[in-house]
């Protein structure tokens, strides 16, 4: 808190109304290999299906289903066109880390890992566990600058240490699960026990009107 300037104190105080586990990377689970702290994915999906959400339930679900089918096909075709083994975003972040790693310095190694200096900070890299005390490698699955420095020190390829979740093979497996085709609504079989009935009539509060309203009143 002492390092936050006056402009950021209001934001910091607003964040404190929520548990730090929801917005601080220090508490993030490292299983998913994603260090995003925003909710843009959910908001983007809601905007993507906004028009469909205005329709009755059956038509809404049908339109969302078709949009998802086309999205899966388009994304699979895009992944097939990748020239490398990993996604372009992954390689872009990896290249950024590589440039930072060139400014890092190896101090030595021991049983607990490698000590790497970046500016005024020092971090410990455990290549066997694929972890670094900065937690970037743990969170995003891409070797952080300190890990890259240690891997290059061992004369190995840092690119081979990127997590499989970010590989082209993993993406293709994700998009290989297709939604099965469906016939039109007129071919659907409706079970009598599941037939949709109109809602029950509910009498409105107050005395019912007897006289009709005159025009102009």
Kindly report how far apart the N and C termini lie.
64 Å
What strand line-up does the widest sheet have? 1-2-3-4
> Kindly state the mean pLDDT as a whole number?
87
What would the principal axes of the Cα set say about the shape?
elongated
**How does the helix and strand content classify structurally?**
alpha+beta
H and E order: HHHHHEEEEHHH
- Total of DSSP H or I helical runs spanning 4+ residues: 8
β-sheet strand percentage: 5-15%
Structural features, described:
The protein is an alpha+beta fold and 217 residues long. The protein has a domain at 88-165. The chain contains eight helices and four strands. It has helices spanning 6-15, 40-48, 50-53, 57-80, 88-101, 136-140, 145-153, 168-175, and strands at residues 105-110, 113-118, 121-126, 131-132. The protein is elongated. The model has no long low-confidence stretch (mean pLDDT 87).
Describe what is shown at a glance:
The chain is an alpha+beta fold. It has 8 helices and 4 strands; from the N terminus they run αααααββββααα.
Key structural traits:
single chain; 217 residues; alpha+beta; four-stranded antiparallel sheet; 8 helices; 4 strands; elongated; metal-binding; Znf_SWIM; zinc-finger; zinc ion binding; zinc
Question: Which SSEs are present, and which pair or pack?
Answer:
Elements: H1 6-15, H2 40-48, H3 50-53, H4 57-80, H5 88-101, E1 105-110, E2 113-118, E3 121-126, E4 131-132, H6 136-140, H7 145-153, H8 168-175
Antiparallel strand pairs: 1-2, 2-3, 3-4
Helix pairs in contact: 4-8, 5-7
GO molecular function: zinc ion binding
Biased composition (Basic residues): 206-217
Pfam families: SWIM
């Amino acid at each position: 808190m002492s390092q936050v300037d006056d402009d950021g104190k209001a934001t910091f105080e607003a964040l404190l109304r929520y548990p730090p586990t929801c917005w601080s990377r220090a508490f993030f689970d490292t299983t998913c290999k994603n260090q995003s702290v925003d909710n843009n994915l959910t908001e983007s999906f809601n905007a993507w299906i906004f028009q469909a959400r205005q329709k009755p339930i059956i038509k809404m679900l049908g339109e969302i289903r078709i949009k998802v089918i086309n999205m899966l096909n388009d994304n699979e075709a895009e992944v097939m066109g990748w020239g490398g083994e990993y996604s372009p975003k992954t390689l872009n972040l990896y290249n950024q880390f590589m440039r930072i790693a060139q400014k890092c310095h190896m101090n030595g190694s021991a049983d607990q890992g490698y000590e790497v200096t970046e500016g005024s900070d020092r971090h410990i890299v455990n290549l066997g566990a694929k972890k670094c005390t900065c937690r970037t490698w743990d969170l995003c699955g891409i070797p952080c600058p300190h890990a890259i420095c240690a891997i290059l020190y061992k004369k190995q390829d840092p690119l081979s240490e990127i997590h499989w979740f970010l590989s082209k093979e993993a993406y293709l497996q994700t998009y290989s699960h297709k939604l099965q085709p469906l016939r039109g609504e007129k071919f659907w079989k409706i079970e009598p026990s599941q037939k949709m009935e109109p809602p029950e009539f509910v009498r409105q509060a107050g005395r019912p009107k007897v006289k009709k309203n005159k025009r102009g009143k």
